[in-house]
Amino acid sequence: MVVQPIKKRLSCCDFTRLKNPKAGKGQAYIPTDYEHIANIVTHGFKTLKYIFHIGDRAVIYLFIASSYTPWLTLREFNGIGDEVLSIVWTMAVVGILYQYIFHEKYKILELLLYLIIGVCPAIVVCLQRQAAGMFELALGGATYILGVVFFKMDGRMPFAHAIWHCFVAGGALWHYYAICTHLLGHDQDELAMHL
Q1: Could you report the per-residue pLDDT of 133-144, keeping only the tens digit for each?
Q2: Which residues contact 71 (CB under 8 A, 6 or more apart)?
Q3: Where are the transmembrane segments (predicted)?
Q4: pTM summary value
Q5: What pLDDT, in 10s, does the model give residues 94-148?
Q6: Is residue 5 packed enough to be buried (19+ CB in 10 Å), middle (13-18) or exposed (0-12)?
Q7: Structural domain boundaries of the chain?
């Protein structure tokens, strides 16, 4: 049996065509075509991470606006429900645009947007004549607002951002429960009584 030299056996795994030549002093790095493709792919994933981070913040506005929408559309507010609903969704759009245009630039504005969209509709909803569901709605709003404390603790407390996510999900769950038991369930019971 003839043994080939090690150099010959490794030639099938020659990676020199995949590597760029070493940049000379004062010269720019010039990637090979393969490296260029790899750079595009990895930079794409960095870009995706940034987009997902912004989307993560933007979706919170949708959570909050969506959790107030059933109350503002299914209950009577002496004719101001539609106006408040327009304000809530306008604020949600402003919050989302803020995230995509000024992400992380004006921290106090971001905080104010979260608080305004979370608190203002709650004040109007609490003025309705029917009290059913108000406790759960208030708990959801309080949960959203308490979560802001952890949102502002990013970088100062371990897992602060993850805890904030839990508060946002908790607030949405309280509002979902209130909607199912006091808005949707109530209407179904009334409908069954009339049949």
Answers
A1: 788 888 888 888
A2: 121, 125, 128, 133, 137, 179, 183
A3: 54-72, 84-101, 108-125, 131-151, 163-185
A4: 0.64
A5: 989 988 888 778 878 887 888 888 777 777 766 767 777 788 888 888 888 888 8
A6: exposed
A7: 36-188
